[in-house]
Amino acid sequence: MQLSDLDYQFPAELLAQTPQRPSRVMWVDDLGPQEITIQDLIHKIPSGDILVLNDTKVLKRRIFADDLEILFLNSNNSWDWEVLFPAKKIKIGQRINLPRGVEAELIAKGRPQVLRTNRPLTEEYFQNVAELPLPPYIQKARGQRHTSSEDEIWYQTVWAAKPGSFAAPTASLHFAEKDIAELVTKGVIVEKVTLHVGLGTFLPVTVENLNQHEMHAEEVEISAASWDNIQKAKKRGQKIWVLGTTSARALESAAQNLIPKDSAGFRGSTQLLIQPGFEFQIVDRLLTNFHQPQSTLLALVAAFANLDKVKACYSWAIERRFRLFSYGDLSVWTR
């Protein structure tokens, strides 16, 4: 697939800067797109079907220092950190002053870069000085680099449990605990998987041929019990409703045997890039946000629902002023 195939135009004012609840929902089936409500969607999920959620929790890892915005990713020793920031501003060996008297030195460039700090950085440090990593396009649209106090609630799912993500699984932001409780009461089986959102999900594509794009590894965990329940439901002819592209990638990676498995379930990492031509083995219904042009997330939706249909439905939604991206509205794709 070519990156240009994933391009489309949208009015800048449709980029959602804050959530709007209840969300609007674009439902897409063989008859085409239509608008429904979240409550309508809940009624459409029948008893015995499975809804799969991602229970990852977003880390506070965005730090402002020396007029830089630095996203701290991973560290093996608490001293050397993989980070993302505008590296053109800093040369190898240059020092950066972090909050609370911490100093860092740039020791390697690339995607990501590597900083070495003069003392270990603990989770307590990040909790005290860092912010949630809100998408840059929201910051730009707001004209404000810092998060608001409301973002602390808005940009975290109500079932977030396992810390490890650098972006929220935003499809889950449309649902409250009462919505999930209503589904469970009517007999829908809710299963949780974990995919810690990282560079593999949000790093921009910089090559025209998507086959040449490097998908960075993201950690995945699926319990044996959840996987067994999903397989039994498939055999019964029940549908698997998957909330978010991250949940979809976790399940399809497991189905492709891309993640190590033992008696406890799947635990490891995935670099799976899903684009048109991919054959889904698990996902029957995909619930997801409206995604940015030229993104691997949009490629996944196109693989699930057909690129021409996705573009036509996105045009339909844009004409009707649906709100886009992380804080935007929800789309539901059936097959």
Notes on the protein architecture:
This protein has a 10-stranded mixed beta sheet. The radius of gyration is 20 Å and the shape is globular. The mean pLDDT is 96. The chain has 2 domains: 240 residues, QueA-like, CATH 3.40.1780; 69 residues, QueA-like (Thrombin, subunit H), CATH 2.40.10.240. The protein is an alpha/beta fold. Strand 6 and strand 7 form a beta hairpin. The chain contains 10 helices and 18 strands. Helices cover 25% and strands 27% of the residues. The protein starts with 23 loop residues before the first strand and ends with a strand.
Question: What does this entry show, briefly?
Answer:
The chain is an alpha/beta fold and about 325 residues long. The chain has helices spanning about 40-45, 125-130, 135-140, 150-155, 175-185, 200, 225-235, 245-255, 295-305, 305-320, and strands at about 25-30, 30-35, 50-55, 55-60, 60-65, 70-75, 80-85, 95, 105-110, 115, 160-165, 190-195, 220-225, 240-245, 260, 265-270, 285-290, 330-335. It folds into two domains: about 5-60 and about 150-335, QueA-like (3-Layer(aba) Sandwich), CATH 3.40.1780.10; about 60-130, QueA-like (Thrombin, subunit H), CATH 2.40.10.240.
Short key terms for the protein model shown above:
335 residues; alpha/beta; QueA-like; Thrombin, subunit H; 2 domains; 6-stranded antiparallel beta sheet; 10 helices
Strand-helix topology:
Blueprint: E1 24-29, E2 32-37, H1 38-44, E3 50-54, E4 56-58, E5 62-65, E6 68-75, E7 80-84, E8 95-97, E9 103-108, E10 113-117, H2 123-129, H3 136-142, H4 151-154, E11 162-165, H5 177-185, E12 189-195, H6 199-202, E13 218-223, H7 224-236, E14 240-243, H8 245-255, E15 261-262, E16 265-270, E17 285-289, H9 296-305, H10 307-319, E18 330-334
Parallel strand pairs: 1-18, 3-12, 3-14, 4-11, 14-17
Antiparallel strand pairs: 1-2, 5-6, 6-7, 7-10, 8-9, 9-10, 12-13, 13-16, 15-16, 17-18
